[in-house]
Amino acid sequence: MYRTHTCGELRLQNVNESVILSGWVQRIRKMGGMTFVDLRDRFGITQLVFDQEKNPKLFEKANRLGREWVIQCQGIVAERSNKNLHLNTGEIEIIAAELSILNESKIPPFTIEDDTDGGDDLRMEYRYIDLRRNTVRKNLELRHLIALEVRKYLSEHNFLEVETPVLIKSTPEGARDFVVPSRMNPGEFYALPQSPQLYKQLLMVAGFDRYFQIVKCFRDEDLRADRQPEFTQIDCEMSFVMQDDVLDLFEGMMIHLFKTIHHIDIHDFPRMTYADAMRLYGSDKPDLRFGMPFVELKEVVSGHQFSVFDSAEYVGGICATGCSSYTRKQIDELTEFVKRPQLGAKGLVYIKYEPDGSFKSSIDKFYNANDLETIAEEVQAKPGDLILILADEKKKAQKVLSELRLEMGTRLGLRKKDVFAPLWVVDFPLFEWDEETQRYYAMHHAFTSPKPEDIVLLSTDPGQVRANAYDMVINGVELGGGSIRIHNSELQHKIFQIMGFSEEEAQFKFGFLMDAFKYGAPPHGGLAFGLDRVVSLFAGLDSIRDCIAFPKNNAGRDMMSGAPSPIETNQLTELSLKLIDSK
Amino acid sequence: MYRTHTCGELRLQNVNESVILSGWVQRIRKMGGMTFVDLRDRFGITQLVFDQEKNPKLFEKANRLGREWVIQCQGIVAERSNKNLHLNTGEIEIIAAELSILNESKIPPFTIEDDTDGGDDLRMEYRYIDLRRNTVRKNLELRHLIALEVRKYLSEHNFLEVETPVLIKSTPEGARDFVVPSRMNPGEFYALPQSPQLYKQLLMVAGFDRYFQIVKCFRDEDLRADRQPEFTQIDCEMSFVMQDDVLDLFEGMMIHLFKTIHHIDIHDFPRMTYADAMRLYGSDKPDLRFGMPFVELKEVVSGHQFSVFDSAEYVGGICATGCSSYTRKQIDELTEFVKRPQLGAKGLVYIKYEPDGSFKSSIDKFYNANDLETIAEEVQAKPGDLILILADEKKKAQKVLSELRLEMGTRLGLRKKDVFAPLWVVDFPLFEWDEETQRYYAMHHAFTSPKPEDIVLLSTDPGQVRANAYDMVINGVELGGGSIRIHNSELQHKIFQIMGFSEEEAQFKFGFLMDAFKYGAPPHGGLAFGLDRVVSLFAGLDSIRDCIAFPKNNAGRDMMSGAPSPIETNQLTELSLKLIDSK
C-alpha cells in the first residue's frame, strides 16, 4: 500500500496514528538536528519531521532528498508545537519512521509555487510540471466541477447527452474546417466539427426533444490569445420552444452554477436588444458591472461652428463619475488610448464639470458655460464628473467609445472579478452585408429564424430583418449564444437564396438537413456556451489558455509534444496525398 | 406556448384539465364519426379524439393529417372508456378543441415501430427517422444514463475529468492514426488520439492523482461489424496504486452501474490469470455465464493407435450437459461448425454418454467402453451428457474449442442477456512475438509494467514475462483493460530496447513522456473501458452500432451526410497538399 491518507487529510484527531503518506517533496528545511520536509500531493501539504538524534540513518536519507522527488513515508502523527494555521494540516506533523524514494527528480526548470518564476514558453514546454502548481490545477478542478454541475442541471431538466460524430462532412461555410483524409475513400476527406449544429438539429427532427453535449469543436483560424484550434462547447437544443423558454432555462443553468460553484445568488438577467446594446454601449456584449451609457449628443452640440462635431455622422459622450480632477497627463493618456492604431480615433473631447459648478473643456472656444451645462445635463453629469466625447463615422465612434468606456470602468475599479453582471442580448440582425464579396452572410448562422414580424422584409430589405437570436453576456464576455431555428424548408431555401447560394450549393452543403426537414421537423432552438470562457469567468482568468490542461500556442503548436510534426511518406501515400513543394 | 405537457405525462388525475400537446402523428384511426390520433413524442403517446358531430371542421382537418406530421393540439383531458393499460397515458384521451399543423411530413421510408420494416442501409440513410423508434432512442437514453452514473461514481471517488487534446502528435506505434494536416505548419500533421494514454500519464506526473475522461478516440483500421473509426472510451488513471487498488475501484464502478441501471446486485468478480483463462476456456475473455471448462485429455487418450490424438500437440474436451440425445444431424452441424474456414478444424470427436450408462462415440474403433468411461470421468461427464473433443496444434485447438464451447452455451440457452458474469483476467504476457516482423510487440502497450518477480526474465526470456495488466470481461466481452505503468525511465528504456526501438526512435515517439518521467513520476496505473461496449452489454445489443447516434458503415462512411467527401482544390493547396492520381 502506497498510502493510508492523502497529504491533505490528517488533523489533530489523528494524533498518534501510524500513517503512510506518498507525494512530492515541496520543500526541505534543515534546522539544527532536525529536517522538515513538506510533502505535497493534489490534496495538500503535510510536514514530515526527521530527527537526527532519534534516527540518524533516516535523517541522513532525508537530507539527500531533492525538490520534486517522489517519496513514501511511514510515521506517527504528532501535534505541532509551531502550528501553521494557513494549512488544513498545519496543526500536525509526521514523525518519520520509514522513508522510501519512489522516484528521483531532476531540478525542475521553474518553481512549483503560485507565483512561479517560469515564463510562459517554459511553462508550456514543461506543462506537466506547471500543472503541479495550485493555481493552474485549481482552474482544472473548477472546470471539472462546472462540467459536472452543467450535466446535472441539464439532466434534471430532461436533456439527453448525445455524442455526435467528430468525423463529419466538410461544409465550407463559416470558419475554415480542419480536414482528415480518408484512407478507405481515396481523395475524400472528413471535416472536424466547428460545432455539432447540423447533428443537433437532426436530433430534434429525430424527436430527441432536449439534447446537450459537452463537446470539442475545431476551427482552423489564425489564432489569437483567446482562441485555440480546439475548444469545448456546451451545446444544447430544445424542441417545441419559444425564445423565452430557452432563455429562462439557460439563465436557470447559470444561476445554478453561480449558486453551486461560487455560492452567489444571481437573480437579475436583464434582456437588452442588440439595437439598445449598440446605442447605449457600442457593443453587442456590454459589460454591465457599471453604467456609463453612451449619450447621443449630435443634436445638442450642432451649430456651434465646431466642424469636428458639425461634420461628424455621430457625436456621443459618456460621463465618468468623479473624474473632473483628471490631470492633463491623464487626459492625454486617454487621448492616446483612443488614437491607438487599433482604434484610430482622431481625437477626444473632454469637459470637466468642476466641483464648484464651473466647466473646463477642450472645446471652450466653441461652447460657453451654458452650452456646456446643456451637454452636462444631457449626459446627466454632476459637479465633479468628467465628460468624454467622440465624434466620427457612427460605427467607428461607437466602437472607440465602447473601448473608452471599458477603460474608464477599469480605471474607476468598476470591473471587479467577483462581481457578475449577466445579460441577454436579443434581436440580433439576421444578416450582415459583406462589402468585399457583395453578399449577405448570416450573422449567427444560416439556420437562424427571422422574427415573424420581420419576415415581410426578407424580400425588400434583408439587412433590416431581426433574428430570433440571443447571446448570454456576463461582464462583457459573450459566454454563449443561439437562436430559434428555421424548421420550415421553404423559409430555409429563401434564406439560402438571400445568402446567394444556388439550389445546388445548398443541396451539396446542407442537403441532408433539408431532406430531414421534409419528414416532420418540430419547431426548435438552442444555444451553445463556450466552456473555456465559462470556466475563465468563474476562475477570474484573463485567457482561456489557463483553464485548458494542454493548450496550443498561437502557431497551433503543442510546445510539450511538438505536435504537429512531419509524418512518414508511406503514411501520406496510403492517404493518396503528397506534399506540394513549398520553396 | 407549444405545450403544457409532454405526450407521456397525463393521467387520470388530469381529467377535465385544458391542455396543449405537441408531437408527431404516430397513427390515425377512423371509426364511424370519430377520428383517433396517436400523438407521439420522446416521452410517450397520447390519444387525441376528433368528433365529427361536435366539431365537424376540426374533424375534417384531423382527417387530412398524415403519418409523422408535427401538430399542436389543445383540448380537454377525458377518461377513456376503452382503456389501454399498456400505455402510461392509456387511461385518458384528449377531446380536441384546436389543432395546428406545425409541419407536414413526406411519407417516411419505413415504419416508426419497434420492429420496423426498414433495412439497415435505409435506416442509416434516414437515421433521423430511425432514431424516432423507441428501441433505438432507448439505447441512447441508456448511454446518457451510464455516462452520467460513471461520472458520478468517479467524481465521488476524487477523480477529476480532464479534457486532453484531440489534435496531438502522431506516434506510429499500434494502430494507424488518422492525421490532420496543419495549415499553419505546412508539411506537418496532427494525429487524432487512439487513446489519451500519454496525456493521462503526464497528468499523473503532474500530480493530478486521479484522472478520468469520457472521450472520443480514433483508429484508422479496416472496419468490422463491431468497430467504428471513432469510438468512446471511459479513460482512467490513478497514482500511488497497486493493481488491486485499481481492480477494486473499477469493480466498484461496475457494481454501481448494475445497481443503478439494472437494479441488480453483482458481487462476484473473480480474478483469473490469463494462463488459466487460456487453459480452461481457450480465450482471454471467457464467457462465465456457464461452466463447460476445457479438460486436457492428451495423456488419457494417448496410446490407442488413434493417430489423430497421438500426433496432436493438444487434445481437449468439453462436456455438454444433457446432450447425449444429440442426433446425427446435430453432431454433423457441430462438425461443420468447427470445420468452417474461419476455424479450420479437421474434425470433431464426440462421445455420447447415454442415460443407461453406455457409450456411443466416433472413436469406438480405438477406445472401448472402459477407455471412454475414463475419458468421461476426466471431463466429469454424467449419463446423458455429450463429450466433444478436438485435437490439433495447441493454440488452434484452444481457439476452435473456445468457439465450440460458446456455440454449445448458446444452444443450451446458457448465455442469457439478463444474466451477467463478470471477471477480471490478470497476469497477461507483457510481450507478443511477431513472426513477420521478427520482433516483440507490447501486448497491452509499451508503458505496461512487468510483474516485479518477472523482471529478471526481461534479459533472458522476454516472452515469459508477465505484466501487471488486467482486463474486465463480462459475458465474454472485454469491456475494458489496463495496467500498472512503468514509472521508471530506465525500465522504460529497457522495454523499448526489447521492442527493438532505437534510442532515437524512442525519443522521437515518446520523448516528451520520457522527459517528464525524469521530473518525479509517481507510481501509477489505470485502465480504459469501451463505452460503446458497456452500453451494448447493458442494452443487450449485438453490435455497438445500435448504441451510437450517427454511426458509420464498414467503409467508414456516414450514409446520411455522405461524409467523407471531396474538398475544393484551394482547400488542399492551403494545406500544401495535392492528391496523388490513383489510376
Automatic annotation (TrEMBL), chains A, B:
Binding residue positions for L-aspartate: E173, R219, H444, R485
Catalytic activity: tRNA(Asp) + L-aspartate + ATP = L-aspartyl-tRNA(Asp) + AMP + diphosphate
Any one GO molecular-function label of the UniProt entry: ATP binding
Domain Aminoacyl-transfer RNA synthetases class-II family profile: 140-564
UniProt keyword Nucleotide-binding present: yes
UniProt-annotated stretches for the region Aspartate: 197-200
PROSITE patterns documented for this protein: AA_TRNA_LIGASE_II
Family: Belongs to the class-II aminoacyl-tRNA synthetase family. Type 1 subfamily.
Annotated protein name in UniProt: Aspartate--tRNA ligase
Naturally occurring in which organism (per UniProt): Microbacter margulisiae
